[in-house]
Amino acid sequence: MSIYAVCGKGGVGKTAFTAMFTKALLESGKAGKLLVIDADPALGLANALAVRPEKTIGQLRESIIETAREGGDSEKGEIARMLDYLVMESLVETDDFALMAMGRSETLGCYCPVNDILRDAITMLSRKFDTILIDGEAGLEQINRQVLREIDCLVILTDSSARGLQTVGILKEMVGKRDAAPCRKVGVVFNRVRGDEAFLAQAAGKIGIEVFGFVPEDPEVGKYDMAGKSLAELPPGSEAAAAVRGIAEKLSVPECGDARREA
Ligand SMILES: Nc1ncnc2c1ncn2[C@@H]1O[C@H](COP(=O)(O)OP(=O)(O)OP(=O)(O)O)[C@@H](O)[C@H]1O
Ligand SMILES: [Mg+2]
Which atom of ligand 1 sits closest to the CA of residue 225? Predict the structure, then answer.
């Protein structure tokens, strides 16, 4: 059992990377039963994988609250007890993997209840799936609030910008401050790289973070995104897809997950 999460600054390519990583895990034959979670309230992963979720967790939660209100009983505890129902109802199964979209609550500006559900859902679903891959929301919130706490492998994605690197530093520091799990891998993946690997590796060294790999700028990714085509279907010659395959190979850490669960 392994849980991977992808986080980083907005717009650096988290969703594109997660979609390519999904494909790479499937191809590796090591993923077993795979669940991908779109944990970005703005969604996007379902599109990048050409999957149509019927209802997000946020929407299901709202309809439960609405029903509870109509019946004169809107206790929050009632909703918490419905976690299993919420989660199973929102899963979309494809031939190769399952997908769950968190979405957001209708309450303006507040993603907290959905993040609370996500935290518990990860624990529950880790018993039902062999591999879980999470496309996190942009920024620091889910790490800061320990929504993504039981992760075997945290991929911090960044572009080559100074601000991207700054976010990597902050995320790494946040993760380092939390109680250490028995086995946790944290590293950076540089995306949209154009031949400046040596400089970027040096920057990662200064931050003190492991480099998981480099994904090159690849016009095919943009073309597929623009046409609304699944990034899991990129041609075998795609340089970005090939680089992600290499990273997935390196990060296959089933023994880490097992160690964590036995502890
Ligand atoms: N390796 C790549 N080569 C070329 N284009 C890329 C690459 N990776 C991502 N992109 C493009 O960058 C843009 C942003 O990617 P994406 O939506 O995956 O970022 P994100 O981090 O998920 O954004 P958000 O924070 O909004 O969720 C998209 O137009 C995507 O096609
Ligand atoms: Mg995204």
Answer: 31
